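Hey,
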Amino acid sequence: MDRLYVTMDVFTEHVFGGNPLAVVLNGAGLTAQQMQAIATEFNYSETTFVLPPRDPAHTAHVRIFTARTEVPFAGHPNVGTAVALARELAARGTAVGDRFVFEEAAGLIPIRLLRSGDRVVGARLTAPKELTVGATVSDRDAAQCVSLSESEVTTRHHPPQVLSVGLPFLVVEVTSRDALRRTRPSWAAHERVLPPIGTDGVLAYFREPEATHLHARVFAPLDATIEDPATGSAAAATIARLAGLRPATDEDLEWRIDQGVDMGRPSLMGGCTEKRGGVVKAVHIAGNAVQVMHGASPVNYR
């Protein structure tokens, strides 16, 4: 059987911007080992495999693989897969509504499709879990992970700490946009600091005082991604943390997260946090996606 695939650029309106993604549209029958081999062959930060849903009330069961391992949830794979699947269904003459629900290892992922006229151009996902706050690391260790001086890491909003809404990242706030521009991953520091705290990626960000506009970079060399152009799961956890720290008890906020600019693949993520009773109860990430390539692989994966 030919395996149908498309590649998408996600969190962008332009080809060769945003974060590349490969989507295998008919993944049924592949083993986990075969999926991993295909994802390694594509060598993108993630590749997804669309499978029949376990519950017919849902849209699809989606598995997500980096070039190294399977992950329970990620942001840009959900947005890109939703757009790719919606367009594939429409091309087959299947009516496509406004909402999908993907089954993933982290839980159910509600998705709202975004349209321009009759064409699906993007998607808005809801993170599968509420924010969890994990281990805190020293400013020194955080600075070494992103190759900055200790004075360029700030605890103005929170210390460097592991945050997750389905996939954990060490989140580090830096003092200036220039400091963010100069961040680089240190493989040695990542190997020393990250595995003991349960993650393999770092999000560094700069935020204007009290603004809801973040500039971010994400590094995950331990997961075969030196730098990721757009990381919806890390962005969602970060804005959930920042929203939770604000004094308002009940508040809905819209966020803008720019990522990938300093590596030449500008990406734009829109975020929304819903806070009730002092707790962020839901966080959403939205963006556009464009198709780059499509094809069919006749390779026998046995």
